[in-house]
Amino acid sequence: MLLNTARVPNDGPTGVPILPYDPANAPDDDTTIQILAPNWLDNSDFDYSKDGYVNNPTVGGDVSEECYNLYRQRFVMVTDLATTSGSPTVTSASNPFNAAYTYPMDFILLNGNGSGAGVTGTLTRVSDGTATLSVNAGATLTNAILWFGTALAETSANALKSSGHSTFAANEGTNTVIPRWDKTNGWMEMGATGSDTFDIATPLPLNFVRSGLTLWFRCIVALNTGGTPAPVRIFAGIWDATSSQKRFLESTNFDLAATVVGGTGATSYTYKVIADLDDGRTIESDAVTIANGPASLSASNYIRLTWTNASGILNFRIYRTKGGTTSRVFTIRNGARDYNDYGTNEETGISMPSASALRPQAYGVSQVFTPAGENIWESVLIPVYIPATYDTSATTGKQWLRFGIVGAAGSARMLLLDRILLSTSNGGWQRSARDQNKILNQNPTSSPTSSTQGGTGIVPTCFTLDTPVFVCDEDGRNVRIAPIGEIEPGDYVLTGTSKISRVVKATDSLSETVYSVLLTNGVGFRCSPSERFITSRADKTGTRIDELTLGDDILCWSAEGVEKAQIAAYGIGHVPEPVRTLSLKGLKTFVAGVNEEGKGAIAHNRKADPGI
User: Residue 507 pLDDT > 90, yes or no?
Assistant: First the structure.
């Protein structure tokens, strides 16, 4: 059916969400029968070199060996950071500060306690286990995550490259930690076995990311030939490249407010709320002190706590300190953002905890998964929540997508990655509108082993063969649902009125462009751009789907009558697919895209207008 959540073989309960890719084929052979999501990323299929994307005709040279719009840079994460309070010197038992790196390097110290926000600057190596940070010596830098590495740059040195590049042998060729581009197959290889890690970054075409958005990052992964499988996680985040920022987009601390309800007094209470995120991190509120609280808390005299929310939170843990004793008051797991403290405790005699982060950030991590096998492609889905209080005006540089592998892989370049998606909708992968234009005007650089690029021309008024349609007997009885691919001449279809029509011809062909559409009432279908739909009772011959947009009406029929539904989501795919056109005797309409509730869109089979 239209929305499929099939999983590939050997995907266990801790695996990542799987789309219906054929695990036996390379990714360029696959199509997804999900609703496709608009993709904001250029060259998301890794098919184009910089030369092939920018130049027409191409000029050759190094630019033909650089994957367009994708850049690799060292990005090392240190989690066992230690420091003396107020000192810019940091140490790590994992010895991550390798002498082979070029220093100083950019760093981001994510939410060190006491610093409020992430601290940025440059890092200078002292020894393998020690480095200094160019940051105010008064900052408290404990309990933080340190990322350090090469600055983002759209340069040849940072470009994701193939083996034909003039600098490949001296860099990627000698250091298997550095990701590389397989130009022939149009995918990338990445993964490191130690602490020295690289990530991939791509600049967004414009700074469209705003506060409160939920973005969806998706990619497909497979075990590289000869790779050693190991459990890994993929991270993805939105990076602010503004010179004064250089960090994942973040918000202010989530604010906590406390108010005495009922009788007051002279007792001091201090509160903090710790939020556990679904990617394993924690964030904390500001600490709030009430100086005029009652001596004893009760249902009549209590302290009311309220706080702002942040996306991706599993639960809130509420802590209270009174008279030098700290207690965990309650754990909220239902998403509520308020609590009345009547004086009860879940645990007492503990220390006030600290969080691994102080602020929500636009950063997400996948579930742990182990690649299923060589050339078995799996889909990784990561929601990236943009903090509600992220200030877009502070971002004067570019916004970038950064993604990579968390921790060590089983072998160097263990993973193949392809078909990345960044969208405001959760759906199947498709190319960006800019890439679709390039396909029409320029040839891709990569040559996949079984490429389906190209097509046979757009055919009129057609649905993909799996589209469910209402059929019936000659007298209109025995109404049932059948895929359009099984409908033959002599069958009868419902028209969306009290009448029925007879199928006199069923024509099969290929459509190089397929629209995937989802309506607000759950009706979904996939069709050629020229398929027509009845949008109102005055729309006698229907309107082409490529002339409609989000929010437009389409009439739908069910046993309860005709209703209007609006286009809620759509995508455009450029992989040729078999489609079928019905020729009807009687009314030229039929009901297609029937959902489980027995509702379907009223389509019109009028042929495409000449010249369109």
Answer: no
Helices (DSSP H) in 345-488: which residue ranges?
433-441
Which is more confident, 380 or 179?
Answer: 179
Pick 245 or 520 by higher pLDDT: 520
Cα–Cα distance for residue pair 29/46, rounded to 1 Å: 14
Burial 250-278 (b: 16+ CB within 10 A, else e): bbbbbebebebeeeeeebebbbbbbbbbe
Which has the closest alpha carbon to 191: 210, 175, 170, 204? 175
pLDDT score, position 251: 75
Q: Which residues contact 381 (CB under 8 A, 6 or more apart)?
A: 16, 17, 216, 217, 218, 366, 426
CB-neighbour burial class of residue 1 (10 A; exposed 0-12, middle 13-18, buried 19+):
exposed
pLDDT in tens, 15-72: 222 333 333 344 554 444 456 788 999 999 998 999 989 988 889 999 999 999 999 9
Question: And the tokens for 100?
Answer: 């082979």
End-to-end CA gap in the chain: 30
- 93-97, 247-251, 510-514 — most confident range: 93-97
Query: pLDDT band for position 603 (50/70/90)?
Result: very high
Lateral strand order in the sheet of 415-423: 180-182, 187-190, 415-423, 214-223, 378-385
Overall average pLDDT of the 309-323 stretch = 82
DSSP state of 232: B
β-pairing, 492-494 vs 468-472, is antiparallel
Q: Is a pLDDT exceeding 90 seen at residue 171?
A: yes
**Cα–Cα distance measured from residue 327 to residue 329, given in angstroms and rounded to the nearest whole number:** 6
Output 344 or 572, whichever has higher pLDDT: 344
> What CA–CA distance (Å, rounded) separates 57 from 63?
13
At residue 368, what is the residue type?
Answer: V
Average pLDDT, the chain: 82
Q: Are 99 and 125 in contact (CB under 8 A)?
A: yes
Distance of alpha carbon 196 from alpha carbon 219, whole angstroms: 23
Among 46, 31, 15, which residue's Cα sits nearest to residue 418?
Answer: 46
Strands (E), 111-205: 119-127, 130-133, 145-149, 159-161, 180-182, 187-190, 198-203
Q: Which stretch of 238-252, 259-273, 543-557 has the lowest confidence by average pLDDT?
A: 238-252
Distances (CA, A) of 161 to 45, 46, 166, 168, 412: 15, 11, 10, 7, 16
How far is it, in rounded angstroms, from Cα 71 to Cα 94? Answer: 27
**Sheet of strand 256-261, all strands in order from the earlier edge strand to the far edge:** 256-261, 302-307, 338-341
Q: In sequence order, which residues have a C-beta less than 8 Å from that of residue 199 and are 6 or more positions away?
A: 72, 73, 75, 149, 235, 402, 403, 404
DSSP letter assigned to residue 519: E
Whether a cis peptide bond, with omega within 30° of 0, leads into 104 is yes
**Which has the closest alpha carbon to 106: 238, 239, 247, 250?**
247
Radius of gyration of the chain (CA): 29
- For 130, how many CA atoms within 13 A lie in the half-sphere containing its CB? 7
Mean pLDDT of 315-337: 90
Whole-number Å distance between alpha carbons of 444 and 458: 20
Nearest CA-CA partner of 418 in 407, 431, 408:
431
Residues in the chain: 612
